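Continuing the series of single-chain predictions for the mutant panel. This is the parent chain; the variants come on the following pages.
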Amino acid sequence: MPAPKKVVLAYSGGLDTSIILKWLQTEYGCEVVTFTADLGQGEELEPARKKAETMGASAIYIEDLREEFVRDFVYPMFRANALYEGLYLLGTSIARPLISKYLVEIAAKEGADAVAHGATGKGNDQVRFELAAYALNPDIKVIAPWREWDLTSRTRLIDFAEKHQIPIAKDKRGEAPFSVDANLLHTSSEGKVLENPAEEAPDYVYQRTVHPEDAPDTPEFVEIGFEKGDAVSINGEKLSPATILTRLNELGGAHGVGRLDLVEGRFVGMKSRGIYETPGGTLLLEAHRGIEQITLDRGEAHLKDELMPKYAELIYNGFWFSPEREMLQALIDKSQEHVTGTVRLKLYKGAARTVARWSDHSLYSEAHVTFEDDAGAYDQKDAAGFIKLNALRLKLIAMRNRRLGR
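Parent structure:
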């Protein structure tokens, strides 16, 4: 591949991406444009701008993408109740296609011939960034320094930083205790003190949630309103998508909700252990399933649950912009036409439970299920023929087996 002339780098301002910025300049002699996405990671982003200026970035982009992130990526995913391997709410996975989208758009605006990211060659993020980039621009070049350079240890990285006068935070001298990825949906912690799955994660790893044992002794109730599958209000107050997730993070975190210790199967083949905190997302999932209980027909709900693992795997593996994900999304969105109403959750000591739900679109009929007089709404005699027809094939199998002596 010919050396790039201008590269758009996904830039956090941290040590690794600062080293990548300088490495691109020295290795390729190219211009570097930085792009920093505000996805609600909770960090001040102006230091990243100043650092990029100091290091000679030819242009600097910092974009507040919180509303777009929740509205166009998190919400569509939550309509599906997506969980990877039955547990993981995909907080890192769902952020990568949005970052790639802006990398490609900025590259077109700046006339850049390549984009770059700081994902390592061992993880999933390299796949997610690059599949998304190629889906949006098949001609784009992608540079992944971790697959090219010889800076394969923390010591070598720091030596490179010192040689090129790149500022190093004091806690970066030596081995970091663990690495963290954060956005409005979750925090993800991996590596070092977490690498042995037989050892319990130390308390200091958790950043967004109190320990459930230290959570309030009094439960708290919260009502989440939905329209067509998307959360639109908290306790009757209409709010924007990002504001809703921010509020739910605060509520869930205060009650120790949303902790997950997971050993997952990475797309590249190895297993890894991560500590995830998704307080607001956990409340959102519980409430969404709560409103679906009364607004979705059994056939709709069961089909969604059958398809969900495939949908979640597509997101985890980086195929957000694939036709199959879009096909599944169309089916999922169709199912949400009547998913409108309100759910009341009870938050207590690490748990979030649905305790009430109501909707003008409800399929629940008390007249049909009551143990009292149903006034003719349902004729119980009808069940006899229903059972006989469903039992017919089972009876025929049993008769054959008896005939054969089995």
